Amino acid sequence: MPDSTINPQRRQFLLDALVLAASIPAFYYPVAANADNTAPPSSNNVRFLQRNDANYLKHRQIFNKRITAMPKIIAVCANEKGVQEAVAYARQAALPIAVKSGGHSFEGFSINDGGLMIDLSGMNKPQYNATTKRLIIQPGAKLGGVYEYLNQYKRLIPAGSCAGVGVAGLTLGGGYGFFGRQFGLTCDSLQRVRMVDGTGKVHDSKDNAELLWACKGGGNGNFGIITELEFNTHPTPTYFSSHRYKYRNLTPEAATQLAERWFELMKNLPNTAYSSWVLNGKHLTVLLTDTAPTPSAALKTILAKLKTGATEVMTPRKDSFLAGIQRYKGGVDPMYFKNVSAGYYRSFSDIKTLLPAIAKKIAAAKMTTLLQINTLGGEINKEGMASTAAYPHRAFGFLGELQTYYDKATQTKEAESIVREIQGMLTAGGIKAHYRNYPDVEIKAWETAYYGDNYPRLQALKRQFDPDNRIRHPQSVRL
């Protein structure tokens, strides 16, 4: 998924034990530690770490410093057999399981407090087959490395731009980005998975079409641990062009007017192009990228109209594919933030009456607060795709993301309050559909917000693959 077009400074992440122990979110339901503090025996397949082990904090690290939960045991898995051994131990010790691949879950669903975390970061090997043009990859692979690896074969999978995001988590929630309108969601290219379920049994989706359906947008950490993914790949474009427009010192009314114009212009956006509308305080940035060799007549018209009223227009860039995508790779150092889905929209009318008040709130915020709206559509809502995947939101052409960034743990409550208030405005205004990869633990009806009518079907799979609810987080599919 594209990271914010305006990124606050990334600071070095120092995991201080006192900070980590403080302010553990209540929704992680701590599990009482066993009296026996002896770690299970490690093997060549999995290394078990306790809180006092030297490498514990390294493997506990996730991208969001706001989340301070501490697993009792971390299982650092080297292979699928190691995942099975970790699940077997969790069952024997009656511990809940959280699953970490990239560690970028906005709400820290890849970690728990007092349970077992399965760390898949070392399982990250890619393998491209030039005959089938397919990529087989392990779940710990991160997006930046996947782009680099496939670029030597002039291929890609349609994904986002943030280099540190794990491909598995991105795919399991749907996955969109610069190439979604041209090639579909990331999960639309997924052809096969292998999974260790909550009982330790291995499944391959070639023998279970329902499992593949669920892994296409049905979320992660629900009923199994993915150990391998196989994708169709697509040819890389020769060029990656970027355009950026800034509009400064806007009133809420002016920001709303620019939003209305942007939504209208996006009706004619070519499928080779992507755009985002980013309100940061009183300033607006519009980003537009395109992979066509030369801009179409429709795109030239859009670019000319975006220029009107802009206080700053970036000189257009026309990079090679890899250099272009790497410009938006984002930071790698963990940071404090509270980012959530701001809902899906069909058109400007969905947020027309809400935007002035939201813009006013963003402008008044005393910490970096952004509303980013991204283009979907194109191949994502191609006829017939809805039945192929658990992802339920293809009818929407736009996706919003609300973001707050801050510097110190003491600012957490303020950041959460800002998000809560704006999310409340959206909910009151009728915004009910949300993106599973941008979770918000305070969304009440998250089951239908993320999964729509597909939630009961996912529950059936939960009962099949994880009947003891071993694999869980605050918004995992319920039995």
Description:
- With 479 residues, the chain is an alpha+beta fold.
- The protein is built from 14 helices and 19 strands.
- The strands form 4 sheets. Strands 12, 13, 14, 15, 16, 17, 18 and 19 form an 8-stranded antiparallel sheet that branches. The protein has a 5-stranded antiparallel sheet with strand order 5-6-10-8-9. The chain has a 4-stranded mixed sheet with strand order 1-2-4-3.
- β13 and β14 form a beta hairpin.
- It is globular.
- The relative contact order is 0.14.
Span between N and C termini? 29 Å
Low-confidence region ranges: 3-36
User: Largest sheet, described in full?
Assistant: 8 strands, antiparallel
Oligomer: single chain
Note the beta-strand portion. 15-25%
Calculate Rg over CA atoms.
22 Å
What is the secondary structure topology, with strand pairs?
Elements: H1 17-21, E1 46-50, H2 56-60, E2 73-77, H3 80-93, E3 97-100, E4 116-119, E5 126-129, E6 134-137, H4 143-151, E7 155-156, H5 167-172, H6 180-183, E8 190-197, E9 202-204, H7 209-215, E10 224-232, E11 234-235, E12 239-247, H8 252-266, E13 273-280, E14 283-290, H9 297-307, E15 312-313, E16 317-320, H10 321-326, E17 336-345, H11 355-364, E18 368-375, E19 398-406, H12 412-428, H13 446-451, H14 455-465
Please name the defining characteristics of this protein.
globular; alpha+beta; 8-stranded antiparallel β-sheet; 23% strand; 5-stranded antiparallel β-sheet
Provide a brief overview of the structure.
The protein has 479 residues and is α+β, with helices and mostly antiparallel strands. 26% of the residues lie in helices and 23% in strands.
